[in-house]
Structure formats: structure tokens, C-alpha cells
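Last lecture ended with a question: if I hand you only a sequence, what can you say about the shape of the protein? Today we answer it with a concrete record. The protein is UMP kinase. Below, first the input exactly as provided, then the predicted structure, then a couple of comments.
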Amino acid sequence: NAEVVLKATNVDGVYDEDPRINPNARLLDSLTYQQVTSRDLSVMDMTAITLCQENNIPVVVFNLGKPGNIAKAIKGESVGTLIGGACVAAAAST
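The predicted structure:
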């Protein structure tokens, strides 16, 4: 069973708007699965997000082009955007 899904991209994580169009777009540190689906964020296929949610598997979205990011993601260090997971669930319930 997977503990986490690592989603490597060409941007630093998930933004509130498309950073290629809006230079003022904000990088989001964390999101719930529901925020991804309700905002229709183009993180990954909605079926994949739903499967991760149903199985409580967090998703880390990070920039593949930045040196060291893969190692950070594998080590569980803060990198990119965290979707789901215990930390996000705790923050959403407060």
C-alpha cells in the first residue's frame, strides 16, 4: 500500500491561480481533497484525487526541476503543496 503519492510538476506546487498567467498567483502550502475537487483545481485527474481521498493517501505536488526536491519529498520534508494527510485534516477541522 502506498503511503503518499508524489506528483512532480514544472511549478512549485498548487497555486490559487495559474502562475503562468498571473504572476501574483499564491502558492498554497496545503489543501484538503475537498478543496481540490470543489475548486476544480487541475492538480491531477479527479479519479486519482478521489482514490487518494478514499484511501487516505496524501499527495505532495512539487517542482521536479528544483534540485533536492525529490529527496525532500521522499524524506517527508516540507516541499510544494500537501493535499490531504493528517496535518491538513487537523487544520481543516479547527
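Comments.
1. The chain has a mean pLDDT of 88.
2. Residues 5-93 form a domain with the Carbamate kinase fold (CATH 3.40.1160.10).
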